[in-house]
Amino acid sequence: MKGNNLGRVLLMAVLLTAGCLKVGPDFTPPKATVAKDWQDAGDPRVKTAAVTYRQWWRAFADPTLDRLIESAYRENLSLRIAGVRVLEARAQLGIAIGEWFPQTQQAFGSLDKVHVSQRSPQAAFGGNTLKFYQSEVGLQAAWELDFWGKFRRAIEAADASLLASIADYDSTLVSLTGDVATSYILIRTLEKRLDIARQNVVSQTESLQLAEAKFQGGTTTQRDVEQAKTLLFNTQATIPALEIQLRQAKNALCVLLGLPPNQLAGLLGGTAGVIPAPPPQVAVGIPADLLRRRPDVRAAEARAAAQCANIGIAKAALFPAFSISGTFSFQASDVVNFKLGNMFDWRSRSASGGPSFQWDILNYGRLTNQVRVQDARFQQLVISYQNTVLKAQQEVDDSLTGFLRSQIRAKMLGESTAAARRSFDLALVQYREGSTDFTTVLTAQQALLSEQDSLAVSLGDISRNLVGVYRALGGGWQLREGKNFVPATVQAEMADRTNWGRLLTSAAYNLPAGPLGVKETKAEATAPPPSPQQK
Question: Which domains does the chain have, with CATH numbers?
Answer without folding.
Answer: 2-26+34-534 (1.20.1600.10)
